[in-house]
Design goal:
Blueprint lengths: L14 E4 L3 H12 L4 E4 L11 E2 L7 E2 L12 H8 L4 E3 L5 E4 L8 H23 L17 H8 L13 H5 L8 E3 L3 H6 L7 E2 L4 E5 L5 E5 L2 E5 L1 E4 L3 H6 L3 E3 L4 H8 L3 E2 L1 E8 L11 E4 L11 E3 L7 E7 H8 L3 H16 L3 H4 E4 L14 E2 L8 H6 L6 E3 L12 H21 L1
Parallel strand pairs: 1-2, 1-12, 2-8, 6-16, 9-13, 12-21
Antiparallel strand pairs: 3-4, 5-7, 9-10, 10-11, 14-20, 15-18, 15-19, 16-17, 17-18
């Protein structure tokens, strides 16, 4: 349950913002700054959306979704974190605990080969994008280089939430750098939540129908109907595709096609709490091991002892993540534990206190982690963001303008949507 103090809810708002994640918070703050009255509708009992820090499971902060303060030199949340006394932990130059396929430790030559192959793969993707080729990343793999299974797993399922054959090289080319990068010891979700202070947010309220006939909008929710001049919709493409929100009239075909071509990827995190034993893994290190070069890869890669906490978390993405999410949480934890044991030995089991799986696949307010452009469809992010009828406006991580899948991109998209609303209301 959110402990953030909210402002009173206006009865006749100018704008309704759907979703109190990073995009919704950015939109609401900009609208209020411009003198507009706003109501933010949030389906869950908390703010932050997919940036969510909870401490109930382990007694220390665990980021269930967004974890990295990415592109921190241009990330608006970096300033917020510093102003509010959060502890930023540098992760740009984190070390890597690298293991061969048989579970043995990689040597210096292995590390060099891994770095060279990683650079070659990234350059191959960039070359394709720079040339305007909108093809799957799997089509531009530079031969059978060492460690390519591991590298494609990081660049695909662990980064985009989709497998390598579902990444658009041209969309990747349009992405901006996510470095420098930091963890937040108190939780990145807690930083995002500070942006909700003083906003008029109505929690535990689900939007079921948006009627945009006439000159305004009528937003039907589980707590009643709200009339407004305009609406900013920040729900995920998974929710838009599901039909959970009905539109009258229906959204244009261009909009629904854009949603279809921006499906949700999935990154499952598996936090596992240990009794203080470090298992030979370095603090904040990436934990990576070689896997067969095939799609989908069966891999769980780890971040060890984030910010000095006694837990590491596994990362399982793409098709394997969806597959495991159909099983009980314990099945996913067991899979992650078996992969870890292959690397550090069976003694790890006796030091495990408990673990769990994040469940964005089954969370009905997201239905996935973040959106990825289908190869051959670059440009759909802009189509999705385009207003409809000067009454419906769209924002979210899927429209991150080079920072897609990031809280910073979502926040900026919310501010852009707010500017468009202000312009539309001035001319109406």
């Amino acid at each position: 349950m959110s402990q953030v103090k909210f402002a009173p809810i206006p009865t006749n708002p100018d704008v309704v913002v759907i979703g109190a994640g990073s995009a919704g918070l950015g939109a609401a703050r900009r609208l209020i700054k411009k003198g507009k009255t706003v109501v933010v509708i949030e389906a869950t009992d908390r703010v932050g959306g997919r940036a969510w820090t909870q401490s109930d499971s382990f007694g220390v902060p665990v980021d269930m979704g967004a974890s990295w303060m990415s592109g921190a030199d241009k990330n608006p949340y970096a300033k917020v974190a510093r102003q509010n006394g959060f502890t930023l932990v540098e992760h740009t130059h984190a070390g890597t605990d690298l293991f061969r396929r048989d579970g043995s430790r990689a040597n210096a030559q292995d590390h060099a080969d891994y770095a060279d192959s990683f650079a070659a793969m990234e350059q191959s993707m960039k070359n394709a994008g720079k040339a305007g080729r909108d093809v799957a990343a799997s089509e531009v793999t530079p031969g059978d280089l060492p460690w390519m299974g591991a590298i494609q797993s990081w660049l695909g399922p662990m980064d985009y939430g989709v497998d390598f054959d579902e990444i658009s090289t041209l969309d990747d080319w349009h992405s901006k750098s996510d470095q420098p990068s930091y963890f937040v010891r108190e939780g990145l979700g807690a930083v995002v939540a500070t942006k909700a202070k003083g906003l008029p947010i109505k929690l535990n309220t689900t939007v079921t129908h948006i009627d945009w006939r006439g000159h305004g909008v009528r937003i039907e929710t589980t707590a009643g109907t709200i009339a407004a001049k305009a609406c900013i919709i920040t729900v995920s493409t998974g929710v838009l595709a599901s039909g959970k929100i009905r539109f009258t009239p229906a959204l244009p075909n261009t909009k629904t096609e854009a949603v279809h071509n921006l499906p949700m990827g999935l990154l499952v995190k598996v936090p596992m709490l240990f009794d203080g034993v470090r298992l030979g893994l370095g603090e904040n290190n990436w934990v990576t091991y070689d896997v067969p070069n095939q799609t989908p890869a069966r891999a769980c890669y780890f971040i060890a002892w984030s910010c000095g906490h006694d837990y590491l978390f596994g990362n399982i993405g793409g098709q394997l993540g969806w597959e495991l999410s159909r099983e009980p949480s314990d099945v996913t934890v067991d899979f992650a534990m078996e992969e870890l044991v292959r690397l550090v030995g069976s003694d790890a089991r006796k030091h495990l206190v408990k673990g769990f799986r994040t469940d964005w696949a089954n969370e009905q307010t997201t239905l996935g982690s973040y959106a990825a452009v289908r190869p051959g469809n670059t440009g759909v992010r802009e189509v999705l963001e385009a207003p409809v009828g000067n009454r419906l406006f769209f924002a979210g991580e899927a429209m991150g303008d080079g920072y897609s899948a990031l809280i910073s991109g979502a926040y900026r998209s919310g501010k852009r949507a707010a500017r468009k609303v202000c312009k539309a209301l001035q001319s109406s």
